[in-house]
Design a protein that fits this description.
This protein is mainly β. It has five domains: 115 residues, Immunoglobulin-like (Sandwich); 82 residues, Immunoglobulin-like, CATH 2.60.40.10; 146 residues, Jelly Rolls; 141 residues, Sandwich (Jelly Rolls); 144 residues, Galactose-binding lectin (Jelly Rolls). 1% of the residues lie in helices and 49% in strands. It contains two helices and 47 strands. The strands form nine sheets. Strands 30, 31, 32, 33, 34, 35, 36, 37 and 38 form a nine-stranded antiparallel β-sheet that branches. Strands 39, 40, 41, 42, 43, 44, 45, 46 and 47 form a nine-stranded antiparallel β-sheet that branches. Strands 19, 20, 21, 23, 27 and 29 form a six-stranded antiparallel β-sheet that branches. Strand 20 and strand 21 form a beta hairpin. The longest helix has 4 residues. The N terminus is likely disordered.
Length: 687
């Protein structure tokens, strides 16, 4: 069977908004975010029998139906579902085939494709054959011709090969197994029985140099890396990357290759190659040797660090071709062979096959896997500020602290350091340290459930947090069961674990093993439930005074769409809480409820809109009314905000309709907006 790759160059003519009208939530433009079907194409095939029979198979993203306009005198149209095709018989001539793709939102996209139906053999065939600039041994073929619809390409690599087909004006491709000269045959086809051919002997080449830079090394502290070559770190000075060790006599040569401003080492026809340091390097504090290597033709690379006292030892690595090989070698692979890494003076690289290929090398450095200090700041806290009492954090407003690391005989020294733009407490030689809030105004934490802090250390064997109530003379300490080395760790300790009256906390103390410990985001918070366990309150408004949209307590009006696809992240499910139907919006940035465009709802006789909500993470909650029958302007749409947001329990919102400038006589859309939170909604009605 032939492999068909019919690709039509689609010209986007018009995007029409369907059942969803323009709306916006704050900075969100609904027309901009609601997506019409995209990348609309058609697979077109014409039989080569002078019959003019054409099949058209539409395709695209986000389409759930298509209309095909054949564009001839019959002016026939057909409606198709995805995966279906239409057949139509044309007379000779040139036609514009129209394709309209419809999305589930009512938006549509129309494209037009010129179709030439001719029973004349294709003429003026022009073929372009090129080696791909990005993929090794890949060849791209395109063709144009008068009276042609498609073309077949025989790439000449296999016996009895099946051609690859494409529409005239498009490109088809093939990746060869080996470089060499191949006879490539192109057959242009139209509606005629006769075809037109072109044949060319073409040299297929491999890409022999990288077309993109090596991966960027991660950020590291200066004490955690010894860099030999590369742009990521400060390199040791005076290194000779092409010392004369006689390698030129073996056919090898050296150049510094410039890839769009990114320099890298290029060792050509690599037999062996030396790298000589200006002075001995002590890498005994490092753990790994790293280098990035690109090659098109070297199979194996032997890597030799050379010591002034113990000579050379090697590790061999197999190389994948045409990609960057990121190589990380534990230094123990060398030291276990007897190599000293405390007095390294040279490197040597040996290629297999001998003098048979070229390597490009970048980012040569030694490093430690566990850094001496954090590179990035602590994680950003996620707890809502309304339930937080903060001691030290950029994310919240901190309470008063009168003393940091007061002189109680500890060895600890304290400084505040900037890590990735984030102020962080750095405790060195930490045996213990204190934080005094305010003896005259103790901190009341009775409404909080947990204490949180983030820590980073590379040498602590223990870490504890103590809370002290000096008013009652109480204190208690909690020890971390394990201490993680070399990464930020978030700690959350229930206050119920402390045998202390937390209504008057005045001191907070960290204890450790004389280590260096970084601390950030020290605060107390209230842990909110994950979801409501009870239903929303039962409404008390009289049914005769209510226009209900969603509530088990009343008979609802008609709603035609729930969470229509307007480009939002919001996901909607309906759940049951205590036998009560409830709307659950997740990742709520905005969502719509379409009432009935054909029969707008008149709420001008009501004075309030009511809904009950439950959330544990929302920082904003807006409610918008839209009259799509009005032109753009204040009478069309308006939004009110719920403030303050109540967390962790059912809350009722009653918004006076007098706050809206919207024309209330014809409401067709109701919209909620929030901060990508999870929000439960019930009892949405006007009264």
């Amino acid at each position: 069977m032939k492999t068909l790759k019919y690709i039509i160059s689609a010209v986007l003519l018009i995007i029409i908004l369907g059942s969803c009208t323009k709306d916006e939530f704050g900075s969100v433009d609904f027309v901009g975010t609601a997506k019409a079907p995209q990348n609309i194409t058609a697979l077109i095939n014409i039989t080569q029998d002078n019959s003019g029979l054409v099949t058209i198979t539409p395709n695209g993203e986000g389409a759930n139906s298509y209309a095909i306009y054949f564009g001839d005198q019959a002016n026939d149209t057909v409606t198709l579902n995805p995966g279906e095709y239409a057949s139509h018989t044309y007379l000779e001539g040139t036609y514009n085939v129209g394709i309209i793709a419809y999305g589930i939102t009512g938006l549509k996209t129309e494209v037009s494709q010129s179709l030439v139906v001719s029973f004349i053999a294709p003429e003026n065939l022009e073929v372009s054959i090129e080696n791909d600039l990005a993929v090794s041994k890949k060849v791209n073929v395109s063709a144009t011709a008068d009276f042609a619809v498609s073309f077949d390409v025989y790439f000449g690599e296999a016996v009895d090969e099946e051609p690859i087909s494409g529409n005239i004006g498009t490109t088809v491709s093939h990746v060869y197994q080996e470089i060499g000269t191949y006879s490539i045959r192109v057959v242009a086809k139209g509606g005629a029985i006769q075809t037109t051919e072109y044949t060319q002997d073409f040299v297929v080449t491999a890409i022999l140099q990288p077309i993109e830079s090596a991966p960027t090394p991660p950020a590291r502290n200066a004490v955690d890396v010894i860099s030999i070559y590369g742009d990521a770190y400060t390199n040791v000075a005076g290194t000779n990357f092409n010392p004369d060790w006689g390698q030129s006599g073996q056919g090898s040569s050296f150049a510094e290759f410039d890839l769009n401003g990114d320099l890298m080492l290029q060792y050509i026809n690599l037999s062996y190659q030396g790298i000589a340091f200006a002075s001995a390097i002590d890498a005994s504090a490092m753990e790994y040797l790293h280098l990035d290597v690109w090659t098109a033709d070297v199979e194996l690379l032997d890597i030799f660090p050379i010591s002034s006292s113990t000579g050379e030892k090697s590790v061999q690595k197999a190389l994948a071709v045409d990609i960057w090989n990121s190589i990380d070698i534990p230094l123990t692979d060398f030291t276990d062979q007897g190599l000293s890494v405390a007095d390294l003076i040279q490197f040597k690289l040996v290629g297999t096959p001998w003098a048979g290929g070229t390597v490009f090398v970048d980012n040569i450095y030694f490093y430690v896997s566990t850094p001496s200090a954090p590179i990035t700041g602590a994680p950003i806290p996620v707890d809502n500020s309304s339930v937080v009492t903060s001691i030290f954090s950029d994310s919240y407003t901190n309470i008063t602290v009168n003393e940091w690391n007061p002189g109680w005989g500890q060895t600890t020294t304290l400084s505040t350091v900037d890590i990735d733009g984030n102020p962080t407490l750095k405790y060195e030689s930490l045996n213990y340290t204190g934080i005094v809030t305010d003896y005259n105004n103790p901190t009341d934490l009775t409404n909080r459930t947990h204490v949180h802090f983030d820590y980073w250390t590379n040498d602590a064997s223990s870490l504890s947090l103590k809370l002290v109530n000096t008013v009652l003379g109480q204190e208690d300490i909690e020890n971390l069961s394990t201490v993680t080395i070399g990464s930020w760790v978030s700690v959350n300790i229930p206050l119920s674990d402390y045998a202390v009256n937390v209504s008057a906390i005045t001191q907070i103390l960290f204890q450790s093993s004389g280590a260096t410990v970084y601390i950030d985001n020290l605060y107390f918070y209230t842990q909110l439930p994950d979801a409501p366990t009870t239903a929303a309150p039962t409404p008390i408004a009289a049914a005769g005074d209510v226009i209900s949209v969603f509530s088990d307590a009343y008979t609802p009006i008609t709603s035609t769409e729930w969470n229509p696809g307007w480009g939002q992240t919001t996901q909607l499910t309906q759940i049951t809480l205590e036998s009560n139907n409830t709307l659950k919006y997740e990742a709520l940035n905005y969502t719509g409820i379409v009432l009935d465009y054909g029969n707008p709802t008149d709420v001008s006789g009501k004075t309030y809109v009511h809904f009950d909500y439950w959330t544990n993470d929302a920082t904003s909650l807006g409610f918008k009314l839209v009259n799509t029958g009005e032109p753009d302007g204040p009478t069309k749409e308006d939004e009110a905000a719920v403030s303050p947001i109540v967390l962790g329990t059912w809350a009722s919102a009653d918004i006076p309709l007098s706050e809206y400038t919207t024309n209330l006589t014809g409401i067709t859309q109701i919209l909620f907006s929030s901060s990508n939170a999870t929000v439960y909604i019930d009892n949405l009605y006007f009264y």
